[in-house]
Amino acid sequence: MKLSTITCALLGLASEVAATALTYKLVANEKACFFATTKKANEKIAFYFAVQSGGSFDIDYEVTGPDGNVIMDGQKERQGDFVFTGKQIGDYKFCFNNEMSTFAEKFVDFELAVEDEARVTIPSKQGSSPEQTSALEESLFKISMQLSTVTRNQKYFRTRENRNFSTVRSTEKRIVNFSLIQILLVIAMGALQVFIVRFFFQAGVRMLIGWTTQGARKGYV
């Protein structure tokens, strides 16, 4: 009976939250918008994003309400985690803008969640006191908050891992390119040295032949 009560409570919690998590690829000079719909006034809207790769790991964003007014925006942000109250019923628009990049593609992880502030009432079994039900509710909501914290930490570490991996790949490419340039410079310097030595050697031979010819002519005369 206790297990079924907890299960009903967890299902109730899940039914009060509508979340969408996506990874989107923005090409250069692209602006992409996504929407979250509220069915009641004063619902909580959670907005999270993180640039996983591309360019300097930054993006412009803008959040617009159903009335067209800008709720929040930012330029060249790497990541953000916001929660605000949707006072109006309708579609809230979340836009990412990569028009500042001329060639860099960017991968953005983001999550939109709409949740009702009203708590779900846990069905109490016969004979249980209100204090026991209240304690169970608090425990469930603490577990929910801890799971949310764990999820956000996982996202943070994933973002750090992707950025560090991108930095490693960029450094590796630079090392390879620098090594290739160094090899080409060594080959060019070697070829230049051979050319200079041959030039001076040929010039010396010509001068020696000229002196020998002049000496022979003078002796002959």
TrEMBL record:
Regions that span the bilayer: 180-201
Q: Where is the GOLD domain?
A: 31-114
Membrane protein topology class: Single-pass membrane protein; Single-pass type I membrane protein
Q: Where in the cell is it found?
A: Endomembrane system; Membrane
GO CC field: endomembrane system; membrane
Q: Which UniProt keywords apply?
A: Membrane, Signal, Transmembrane, Transmembrane helix
Q: What domain of life does the native source organism fall in?
A: Eukaryota
List the signal peptide residues: 1-19
Which is an annotated Pfam family here?
EMP24_GP25L
What's this protein's family per the entry?
Belongs to the EMP24/GP25L family.
Record-given protein name:
Emp24/gp25L/p24 family/GOLD-domain-containing protein
Q: Which organism is this entry from?
A: Neurospora hispaniola
